Structures are given as structure tokens and as C-alpha cells.
Amino acid sequence: MKTTDLKFLSMAAFAAMSVFTACSDDDETTPPPPPGGAIYSSELFTASGNNNVINYEFGHTFSNTFVGTVDGGANMPGVNSFFTAAAYRGAVPADNDWTAGWTLVDETGGDNKPSQAAVETLTGTLNEDKTLAANQKYMLSGDYIVATGATLTIEEGVTIVANAEDDLVDYILVQQGAKIVAEGTASNPIVMTATRTEDGAWGGIHICGKAHTNVSGGSGMSEIGGAKYGGNEEDDNSGTLRYVRLEYTGYAFDEEHEANGISFYGVGRGTTVEYCQAYKGSDDGFEFFGGSVNIKNMVVVNCSDDSFDWTEGWNGYGQFLVAYQEAESTLGYDCDCLMECDNNGDNFGATPVSHPVLANLTLIGNGGSKQGVRLRAGTEVSLYNALITGKGQCLTTETAETENALVDGESVLNYITLATDITCEGAGE
């Protein structure tokens, strides 16, 4: 996914910098890495053609938690027609707060229709089309599986409340060949929450599509529900998610299996995903296991693991992405990365390689020492117009494959403003 007009300066142009194996400006005595190892550095990151900034003071950038941008950015429609013109850094301009009215930051979530009786309990397997009527409340008890060939339609203003007290694992699973069509509005969003207003109360949404994954054999099974995903239908359509807020997800089945807000398994680019929020989950906000699904206007607030997470070859487009983490001292629990970015943890070179193209991001950490954007396990990326702050290591590169892609121009980091220097650890991998 090379972008000719905004790509990184070539390795040859920086041959004189080959003594660097990490991002330290004063580490000139460090010997070069072994043959074939990548060489990436702060100097490459901040080269004039990249328009990147390190050690930026964000003290007066944001209002209302994450509203605010910095002037100067890439012309994204010139990169791909998916993108909206937004030649600034950050996701939420002060004169266009698209998060207002349907997202939560520090308010208490939960059942927003407490006096309204649930019209139905959702449980078991849905084998035919079904519509959840506008402005009604539904309970969720156990697994609710939308089977192949069926469509679950959720109208605006619907509230779904998972029964976190019934000793069942509550989640919605959309199988390959099924659809979920959930269309709220900014003034009347769809809210999915739980009877217990704390992280980890229920299991979120799991969508299985027919687009690619780079796991061995080309198909996998979802971590929750054991449903098949993967294939070669990149235009596969699993439905629409628009103005949907998911609260208190992240139910832990065991140490290896926790539920995200929404898990996208091999989901194709025929699927529409925009204006979605994951709020106070105990695992990731949104995670992508391969697939080509595109996303816009996504918000993750106070999810204890990673806000955004990708692996297994995800190569979709994304614009206007927000991740925000409150400080542990007031939130009551820690949060991990703002973005954890992998190709394949078992095979860094697995193909197709993860390579999303993302623009206009505001990523604000909880003030801890952890990574903000963690590029590792062979991932590639094209990242533009981003503001990243609130982490001790705002951006790290951790594998040779990832750094090689940056050096040779296959990956792009342009118009990025960081509160810290970058950290490079890939040369020795």
C-alpha cells in the first residue's frame, strides 16, 4: 500500500544515519544491527518530508477531554477517496464535535430506560430475520447468535441490557453470512449495556465475516462462541453499525479469552461501521482479526486493555478515531495501549500483512509509562494526522519487519505530533 505523494523518505537517502539502532540522539557508539536488521530512528521519523513532531507540549490543545486539533495535516482524499478532507491533526475539531450527545466520557452509563419494562429477552439462536423496535428495551441473557442467512435489525433508540446477574455469559454473535443492521442517530443512539455498571459485565458483539485472515489455513474460529471466520470475499457485507454505544464489556472467560466491545473477525469492506463507542470495558475497545472492514468516527473511553487492537492482516481504512484513558488514580484501574498493532504473533511475515491506513486520530493516555501506539509483530501501517499524548512511550516500533517497512517506505508515518520521542526496538529482533 505505497502512497507515492506522502511516502517515507527512502533508506538510501539516510545511509549516513545507519549507525542508529534506536531512537536515542546520543547513542552514537552503539554498533549497527546484524545484517538484515532494520534501522529506524528519531531522525528518520522527524525528517522534514514527514512533518512529524516530537516532545510537543499539549497543555492547551484539548477542551472537553479530547476536543481539539493542531493545524497542518495531510490531504487525505488525495490518498484514497474513502477519506474526508480534514487537513489537521486530531479527530475532533472544536467547531465540529461529532462526539456530542451520543458518547460518554465520565458519566454513569447503564440502563437509560430504568422505568421501562423490557419487551423481550434475547437468547439462543436467531434463524430468521428479526427487528428490535425503536425506543424499546430488551434484555440479553446468555448467547444470542444471529445464524447464517438471518439479519438482526436494531432501530434507533433501542436499549439492550445484559443480565449480568444470571451466571450466563451474555454476548451477541453474528455468524458468517448473517447480518446485524443497527442504526441509531446522534440524538437517539442504540445503547448496549448491562445490569452491573462495571467493566467486564458482559461479552459485547462478535462479527464473523468471509474476508481474509493470515492465520494458518486461511480461516479461524472466534475466541468467543467458536464461530468460523475468514475467506477471500473482501467485499463481504456483515451489515451496518451506526451510532451504537457499548458499555461495560470485557467479560473474562479465562486468562486467554476476554470479550472486547466489538470483535471484527475477517469482516469485509461491504460492512458499514461508523459512530460507535466502547465505554469502560475490561478488554479492548475494538479489535480486528484480519479482514478489510473500514471504520469512521470511533470512540474508546477507559477500556482497561487496548483501545484499538489489530492482528491477522487487517488492512481497512479508518478516519476520526478517538482513544481516551482516565488516570488510574481516579478511574480505579489501569489501561494498556492506545493502539496495539500486530501482523501475526506466531509468524511476523504472514501474508496478507496487516496494513491499515488511518487518519485523524486523537489518542490520549492515562499518564502511565506504557506504550501509546505499539507497532510490533511485523505489522505495517500508514498513519496520518495524529495527536498522541499521555503515555511514557507514545509510539514504539518493536520488530525488524515493522521497522524495515518504515525505512523502505512501505509504511508511512506523516503529520504526527507526539508528547514524547519515539522508541525503536526492532533492529535486534
Query: What is the strand tally?
Result: 29
What Rg, in angstroms, do the CA atoms define? 21 Å
**Helix/strand class:** mainly beta
Q: Could you tell me the mean pLDDT?
A: 91
Distinct helical segment count: 3
Poorly predicted ranges = 1-38
Percent of residues in helices comes to under 10%
Name the shape in a single word: globular
For the largest beta-sheet, the strand count, sense and barrel status come to: 23 strands, parallel
The proportion of strand residues reads: 25-35%
Distance between the termini: 24 Å
Report on the structure:
The protein is mainly beta and 429 residues long. It starts with 41 loop residues before the first helix and ends in a 5-residue tail after the last strand. The longest helix has 8 residues, at 400-407. It has helices spanning 42-45, 328-331, 400-407, and strands at 68-71, 88-92, 120-126, 130-132, 137-146, 151-154, 159-162, 171-174, 179-183, 190-194, 205-208, 220-221, 228-229, 239-247, 252-254, 257-258, 262-265, 272-279, 286-289, 295-301, 308-311, 317-324, 339-341, 357-364, 371-375, 382-389, 393-397, 412-418, 423-424.
